[in-house]
Amino acid sequence: MKNKVVLILFSAAFLLSACKKTESEKVDTKAENKSPEKFTIDSLKVNDSVKINDKLSVNYASKVLVFPTLKDKALLDSIYYDKTGITDYSKQGLQNFLNKDKAEFVSSVKEDSKEWISDIQNPQTWEAGSFMKLISQNDDFLQIEYLHTSYQGGAHGNYSFDTRVFDLKNNKKLDLKDITTMPKTRLEELLMKNIDKLPSGTTDSDGPVKNSDMLLVDVIPANKDFYFDEKNLYFHYSPYEIAAFAAGDIVIPVSWKELDRTINPEFKKRMKIN
User: What's the pTM value of the predicted model, to 2 decimals?
Assistant: First the structure.
């Protein structure tokens, strides 16, 4: 009788353990089958003017893209490379950074202008601007254009572009060597050959002006400011980088066909380049 009781208790314990294990496996399976968090993009803007005196005002403007689902710190550091000192990449953290950056810009103009502000003859508005623009987000490649603008007196303001591509699959900024192994000199030849394919829109009294007529360089380097689509790899140049300021920014395309046999196999597969 005693042995029967022990056997019954052992059997009950075994069944209970088996049930718990089954429940645990169900939970684990459910966790494994959970869909990945959907990639989302948000943004925030700041645009504020402050009057220093009757002759000088300052304007601060910024647009920042926000990526709530991105968590990799090194990747976020690279995305917000121009936001020196930022550590909190949440929407509120970015808002706090912009508010601080705006206050520091206004304060610096007030301090720096003390000695010469009385010499200003006509009312001026000094400006500082930074703007992030989404180019595309496909095949786990995030492409962003950065525009920086400024005016602190003189004949005209200045502006420059940076373009960056981020590999969300591998959490890194994409380099040109990740796309093509084409020799530097050959790529430079293609850039010079294609310089006029996308007109900058510059005109004079005779009409449209070719990009090639405004060049300041004999060789167009393949810079770090590139992006791409299903047809071409594009190189983006800021004013004065390769041409006169009047030319504005210039974009030069190089087709995938022109880069044939030099395209990285993994990149070619992800972009479905034939």
Answer: 0.85
